[in-house]
Design a protein that fits this description.
Length: 157
């Protein structure tokens, strides 16, 4: 039996039964007559996530991206909805009680506020979202980690 041959919900083997108007192979159950098509959500989601990353990291607008894909702006927003819900792991997990020789502290402003980050040369240790870089926000960031030997800052204003 072919690996590509799906099984019906009734458990029977399905056979090819032509294609849809889109060109997707249609499958029909030999036993109960049910018809279906195989879906590869992993491939679809990977393509959508690639477009989402492109939209977030380049100057391409949502309208231009939608036009390039032959869909409306609303469709692109709907496709991207799940991408915004990605759970960001806590970088402090697994770094308990570790004292770093040197860390770098800096803030990056976005449309949603300011992200202040504590990092080493090769990875992020902790971050904190705030409206503006203030002493209190840096204290909130640093209270999550052990005091380093040296902290490097950009000098601010």
């Amino acid at each position: 039996m072919s690996k590509n041959q799906p099984r019906c919900h009734c458990g029977a083997v399905m056979k090819r039964n032509g294609t849809t108007s889109k060109g997707t192979t249609r499958w029909r159950c030999k036993q109960c007559g049910a018809s279906s098509v195989k879906r590869r959500n992993d491939i679809t989601n990977a393509a959508v996530f690639t477009q989402f990353i492109e939209h977030c990291t380049t100057a391409i607008s949502l309208d231009d991206l939608a036009k390039r894909n032959g869909v409306s702006r609303a469709t692109m927003k709907r496709r991207f909805k799940w991408c915004w819900l990605a759970d960001v792991p806590d970088p402090t997990a697994g770094h308990d009680k570790r004292i770093y020789d040197q860390i770098f502290l800096d803030g990056t402003y976005t449309a949603g506020g300011c992200l202040i980050v504590a990092a080493t040369i090769d990875h992020v240790i902790a971050w904190h979202w705030c409206k503006h870089e203030t002493t209190r926000d840096y204290q909130r960031l640093l209270e999550r980690i052990e005091a380093p030997l040296i902290a490097v800052i950009d000098g601010g204003q």
